[in-house]
Design goal:
Blueprint lengths: L21 H11 L7 E2 L2 E9 L4 E7 L4 E7 L2 H4 L2 H15 L9 E7 L2 E7 L3 E3 H5 L6 H20 L2 E2 L8 E4 L4 E3 L6 E2 L31 H4 L6 H17 L9 H10 L5 H4 L5 H10 L11 H11 L12 H28 L6 E7 L6 E8 L3 E7 L5 E6 L6 E3 L6 E6 L5 E6 L5 E7 L6 E8 L1 E4 L5 E6 L17 E6 L7 E6 L2 E7 L5 E8 L2 E8 L6 E6 L4 E5 L6 E6 L4 E6 L13 E2 L6 E7 L5 E8 L2 E7 L4 E4 L6 E6 L5 E6 L5 E5 L6 E2 L7 E6 L5 E6 L2 E6 L6 E4 L3 E5 L5 E6 L2 E6 L5 E3 L7 E7 L2 E7 L5 E7 L4 E8 L3 E4 L5 E5 L6 E6 L4 E7 L13 E3 L5 E6 L2 E10 L2
Antiparallel strand pairs: 1-2, 2-3, 3-4, 4-6, 5-6, 7-9, 8-11, 9-10, 12-59, 13-14, 14-15, 15-16, 17-18, 18-19, 19-20, 21-22, 22-23, 23-24, 25-26, 26-27, 27-28, 29-30, 30-31, 31-32, 33-34, 34-59, 35-36, 35-58, 37-38, 38-39, 39-40, 41-42, 42-43, 43-44, 45-46, 46-47, 47-48, 49-50, 50-51, 51-52, ...
Helix pairs in contact: 5-7, 5-11, 7-10, 10-11, 11-12
Length: 890
């Protein structure tokens, strides 16, 4: 066995020195310039090698002049030849030497030994914070103490204009006496400091390239992840992540890959500390979460403020009791009064600086387990939760205990019921009758009984007051094509209140937009309106008597389903990024509120939660939870059944190479493109979920993939790499058989893109035509809207420059077969089918029924065709159940 190298503890985090056999040692050591014991560096003698740091080797040495042991970091020759590493090493020395603080590593000297720069610092005994965290979370008092020390050290650095930018447990050293030292300022950003009075000296100003990501994944602030300029508040974010880890025993933004971790830093909030460390005081939780705010303006604005907040939370020691004589009693009274004023002022400052208490989800209980689709609104009488269960156009009303257990269905004597609300005494459900809007209202007695229609109005949206009255909306102009119109310039809505039986409706207000959701407050005094006006979504509030209509806020397309909390102090809603949704709370605040209109995130995944509804006692919020997944299946034309395609992969939109050896697909639900062999091997991710790539098509030669992203068209190599944007506005691109062109949907109709000249030309007469497929080098197939909701397909001939009608059918989604002999398509409605059109004799053939086929959410199933000509569909395997969020309110 080769000899072991010396080891020990250093002020700089070190990795163990590997065992080096003599034959290897002769080759490696000269290039590293490893120093032997007894080597002299100026007035220092090397005693032992402690280990290898991130940029150098660390030694224990003795200072002859001051008779003390020190740590020396030496930059090896091969590293010192790298200008960037040399600059960082010099910057670390300059930054650290400019500071003199008990919580920052003390640097004594910076020198050069035979062309190798070195840095002399104090020698510490102990270990890194990372070593302590390897054992899990630490006591709250110790975490607060460590956090306050780090904050004080950062405050000293920031005062000198130095931003660390790489704060992490590996760069924090805890000495044996419990003192925390900040190490490694190699990524520090030095900016001109504001000199204090009578302060002499200079500050180094070193620039950083804009757009360069600096830091360590997991502790970088959102602005660092984006490559933007980072100031001292980036260090505060990193310290917040470290505090979180000390308390929770896990990283705040831990994900399987670096890319996912950075995405989480940008978009997600960490799990509430109360769930990982329930004993942590609410004040400490607020401090940590304020440090981790995405917006730097919402964090602590100085490390000294953060240190003050942490110190205010630390437990005070016992005070000794002093006996005083009567002559000094009056003086001590004044001292006590003054001290009281100081304490009161400190408490007021802490109250203002520390964010107020917020509601926290302490646990989550799953109530149902059938996995079937569900939708709200959810309603509860305190013992049961009622909801819709099943499939679109086949909904049933179901119920489950608030403690969970078996489901039961509520029988109705009308089809496709859809819950509106629950009568306050729990005696009946109010429901819409039918899937189309507008529709009648029905009252369904509980636990059983015949349902009866309420009133004669057909309504868009409705809710029920605590006293049984009914609020509902109707369009006062032309109805939109769906319940969630994308444009509402011609739609206006009226809000009505009617009696319990739906009679005597009284119009409260008319609004210019389309109301697509209403909710009555628990006390019955206010009504929330979700209004879409020219694609701007507004949350508005009106008194139950029709007065005081006011706008509360504007909200995004992924925000939904605003309801009042049980006490009426919060608004609950779901919001997400289009891929995952979480539950949020919003308080408008009063005169003394410091978080007016600041949303509070209650859940952080991993599944999507939507449609919140509070329990009557306010202790729970009932939600639907969604675990999205899908499977690819192909229809075997001989066996007449669906069989797995690319087993084990949750995906949509597969496209195969011409030789059938490769396939590109869109993973579901994260929406990134992947490439693999047709047997599923050799998988490679081509795009990130953020690109949201759709409609991938492999080129005829199998070397490139065309896809659409955010209404732009890109090309990417089949082996990955940097995507090339070729079309700024367009989508749905399809390769020509010879691979020389793409036909695509442009804002002005169908167009042709020449991949060699990079020029675009528009097809004549194609302004309202969509969904193009290339049949031959000289012909293109595309569709246009026809009468009665049908689609008409036409063929364009490049030689004649004319369009020719081919066939008309009710079509949802289409795909051309690889041999271009068939056009496969799916139909919708109550009896959906998989069919194909045969170009040879222009006949339509039904392949199979899709009545029992589980389509993806919103009834959308993308159809594709395998190399063998069998149709490929995406079957939904999503599990959706009802959950109860157990909430602790402030």
């Amino acid at each position: 066995m080769c000899g072991r190298s010396p080891h020990g503890q250093s002020a700089i985090p070190v990795a163990p020195v590997p065992e080096i056999c003599p034959s290897v040692e002769r080759r490696i050591i000269p290039s590293l310039m490893r120093l032997a014991a007894g080597t002299k560096l100026d007035s220092y003698e090397i005693l032992a090698l402690l280990g290898t740091g991130g940029m150098g080797e660390v030694y224990r040495a003795r200072d002859f002049q001051l008779k003390r042991e020190v740590a020396i970091k030496v930059l090896p020759h091969f590293v010192s030849q790298d200008p960037d590493r040399l600059r960082r090493f010099e910057q670390e020395a300059q930054a650290t030497a400019a500071l003199n603080h008990p919580n920052i590593l003390a640097v004594h000297q910076f020198g050069n030994f035979e062309g190798a720069p070195y840095l002399v610092s104090e020698l510490l005994e102990g270990g890194t914070l990372r070593q302590q965290l390897a054992h899990g979370s630490m006591p709250i008092r110790k975490a607060i103490e460590y956090g306050a020390q780090i904050a004080r050290g950062l405050a000293a650095a920031h005062e000198k204009g130095i931003v660390h930018r790489d704060l992490k447990p590996e760069n924090l050293f805890v000495t044996k006496d419990g003192r925390v030292k900040i190490l490694d300022f190699g990524l520090a950003k030095l900016t001109p400091a504001r000199p204090a009075p009578d302060e002499l000296g200079t500050t180094v100003n070193l620039a950083t390239d804009p757009g360069l990501v600096m830091g360590t994944v997991g502790y970088m602030s959102p602005e660092q992840v984006r490559g933007k300029a980072a100031d001292h508040r980036a260090d505060i974010f990193a310290l917040g992540a470290i505090l979180y880890e000390m308390l929770a025993g896990r990283r705040a933004f831990e994900r399987p890959t670096s890319t996912e971790t950075m995405t989480a830093i940008l978009n997600d909030d960490p799990m509430s500390i109360s769930q990982a460390a329930p004993s942590a005081p609410a004040g400490l939780q607020r401090v940590v979460h304020r440090c981790l705010e995405k917006n730097p303006e919402q964090r602590f604005q100085s490390a000294s403020d953060l240190a003050f907040a942490l110190e205010a939370l630390s437990e005070s020691g016992s005070s000794a009791i002093h006996v005083v004589d009567s002559r000094s009693r009056s003086r001590w009274v004044w001292v006590a009064v003054a001290a009281g004023v100081v304490v009161l002022a400190a408490l007021l400052i802490a109250w203002w600086r520390i964010p107020p208490a917020v509601p926290v989800v302490e646990s989550i209980t799953q109530l149902t387990d059938d996995g079937e689709r569900k939708h709200g609104p959810l309603v509860s009488d305190g013992t049961r939760v009622y909801f819709n269960d099943g499939q679109p156009n086949k909904w049933k009303i179901a119920q489950v205990s608030v403690a969970g257990g078996p489901m039961a269905f509520v029988e109705t004597n009308f089809a496709d019921p859809d819950i509106v609300g629950l009568v306050h005494d729990g005696s009946a459900l109010l429901a819409y009758g039918g899937a189309d809007f507008p529709c009648p209202l029905w009252m369904i007695p509980l636990p059983a009984g015949g349902a009866h229609r309420i009133g004669s109005n057909e309504v868009q949206w409705a809710d029920i007051f605590p006293d049984g009255r009914i609020a509902f909306t109707k369009n006062n102009k032309e109805s939109p094509p769906s319940s969630y119109p994308s444009s509402n310039t011609s739609v206006g809505s009226d809000l009505f209140v009617a009696d319990k039986d739906g009679l005597n409706p009284l119009k409260l207000v008319s609004v210019p937009g389309y109301i697509f959701g209403i909710n009555v407050s628990p006390d019955g005094h206010r009504i929330l309106l979700e209004e879409n006006r020219n694609d701007t979504r507004l949350l508005r509030e009106i008194a139950a008597d029709g007065t005081g209509l006011r706008e509360i806020l504007k909200f995004g397309k992924n925000d939904c389903c605003y309801v009042w909390s049980s006490d009426g102090k919060y608004l609950l809603y779901s919001s997400g990024n289009g891929k995952q949704s979480d539950i949020w709370a919003l308080t408008l605040g009063g005169m003394l509120s410091r978080r007016s209109r600041e949303p509070i995130r209650l859940t952080t995944g991993p599944m999507s939660f939507t449609e919140p509804f509070p329990s009557r006692d306010g202790k729970q919020i009932f939600v639907t939870g969604l675990k999205e997944r899908a499977e690819l299946v192909h229809y075997d034309m001989k066996l007449h059944q669906f069989l797995p395609f690319l087993s084990g992969i949750s995906a949509t939109e597969p496209t195969s190479s011409r030789d059938g050896k490769w396939v590109v697909y869109r993973s579901y639900p994260d929406r990134s493109l992947w490439r693999s062999r047709s047997d599923g091997n050799e998988r490679m991710q081509l795009t990130s979920p953020q690109m949201d790539a759709i409609w991938p098509w492999i080129s005829p030669d199998g070397t490139r993939v065309a896809y659409t992203s955010h209404n732009q068209i890109f090309l990417i190599d089949m082996n990955g790499g940097q995507p090339q944007r070729i079309i700024e506005k367009g989508g749905d691109a399809y390769w020509s058989p010879d691979g020389n062109a793409l036909v695509f949907q442009s804002p002005n109709g169908l167009a042709i893109f020449d991949v060699h000249t990079m020029e675009t030309s528009t097809l004549p007469g194609a302004e309202h035509i969509w969904g193009p497929f290339w049949l031959t080098d000289d012909t293109i197939l595309a569709g246009t809207d026809a009468a009665s909701g049908q689609s008409k397909y036409l063929i364009f001939d490049f030689k004649t420059k004319k369009w020719t009608d081919v066939f008309t059918a009710t079509i949802e989604n289409t795909m051309i077969s690889p041999d271009h002999k068939y056009l496969y398509f799916t139909t919708g409605g109550a009896e959906p089918k998989l069919e194909r059109f045969r170009f040879a004799d222009r006949q339509i053939e039904t392949i199979t029924s899709l009545k029992d086929f589980r389509q993806l959410r919103f009834g959308y199933t993308q159809i594709n065709v395998a190399p063998d000509g069998s149709p490929v569909l995406t079957r939904d395997t999503t599990a959706q159940d009802i959950y109860a969020l157990n909430v602790r309110w402030p």
